[in-house]
Amino acid sequence: MLTLTHLWILALLPLPWLLRRILPPRRASRVAVRVPFGDRLRAANEEGGSVSRATRKSSRHILPALAWTCVVLSLARPQWIEAPVTKDLPTRDLLLLVDLSGSMRQEDFTNSAGNKVDRLSAVKEVLGDFLSRRDGDRVGLVVFGDAPFLQAPFSTDLGLSRRLLDETAIGMAGPRTAFGDAIGLGVTLFDHSDAPAKTIIALTDGNDTASQVPPAEAARVASERGIRIHTVAIGDPTTVGEEKLDEAALRSVAQSSGGSYFFAGDRTQLEGIYAELDKIETRQVKVISHRPRSDLFHWPLLAALILWLLEKALVVVRQSADASQAADRKVRVDPLTGKLEVMS
Fold it and tell me: Residue 145 carries which DSSP code?
């Protein structure tokens, strides 16, 4: 769509006409040669060329008027407005904490094909489906074992987060579980986040055995900074030793940060947890619209320049033609009648 940014500039179109009416051109006549029959000489000289001169007088203002119109249009700043471009602004930063400790090797989950798989494979499969529904969110990924590691920074590129999740392997971060330190790293990552909603989803199957900061203390700090933590317990609650499932600690982390606690004993329960998280963490998208504008002022300006050059060229041609015609015409005085005659 074509539009003029400064439409009021068009009011300047009649300005040259008004100036000519208010301030007429000053005419000065200077006498070069005095002859007793000057009036008759001038009339005879103009005879035969009066029609062409009248025509040129009426048309000599056309090109300057067109050039002035182009200049005014250029000053009005014509623009071409393109179709609207919409963009979804993320309203939530979602951080996933995935446990890669040795206990995730336990094959007590069944995948969509009905085969027994380890816990991490089940998490990847179901979590991948969950990520595909997070359009409008920025998602980050932290994996932890003996220590937490940032696997994927916050990004709206959900395909990247899913691909980096698929590249994780059991034990790559160490055999133990540093759950509290993982929450602490997550809190640090949110320091530069300006999203109105900040959420952590932690997936772990063991109690904290390697953290320098207790999970409860890390959850308290997260709550103070407006970060909500949902915990998903994965594993067998009857397991004892360092790989036991500490449900009390996971419940405490969720409750102290305003989140929810879930237990996933098999893949069906894990799918139900993500469906419940979809309800809790409803997607809110803020949409902004922008219509690109392209300036076109240079085109009428170029047209004005071309018209001006054309008008100057026509003036030169007219002057040359007038000089040629004047040289071809001869004026003589009839000795019998005393009248002036133009001879060509």
Answer: S
**Which pLDDT score is estimated for 272?**
78
Sequence-separated (6 or more) residues with CB below 8 Å from residue 317: none
* Residue 64: closest CA among 318, 296, 297, 314: 314
Answer whether 308's CB lies under 8 Å from 106's CB. no
Count helices and strands (H / E) in the chain: 11, 15
Token pair for 25: 């051109």
The per-residue pLDDT for range 37-46, each reduced to its tens digit, is 556 556 655 5
**Is the CB of residue 189 less than 8 Å from the CB of residue 96?**
no
Distance CA 89, CA 333 (A): 93
Nearest to 139 by CA among 151, 121, 148: 151
d(CA 164, CA 73): 55
- Domain chopping of the chain, boundaries: 2-21+35-82+294-343, 87-290
CA dist 221 and 256 (Å) reads 10
Distance CA 307, CA 321 (A): 21
Please choose, from the candidates 96, 140, 94, 92, the residue with its C-alpha nearest in 3D space to the C-alpha of residue 232: 96
- pTM (whole model) above 0.90: no
Task: Please give the CATH number for the structural domain made up of 87-290.
Answer: 3.40.50.410
3-state helix, strand, coil in the chain (%, to 5): 45, 25, 30
The SS3 assignment for 18 reads helix
- Residue 248's identity, in one-letter code, is A
Q: What is the pLDDT of residue 51?
A: 46
Q: At what angle do helices 15-22 and 62-75 cross, to 10 degrees?
A: 130
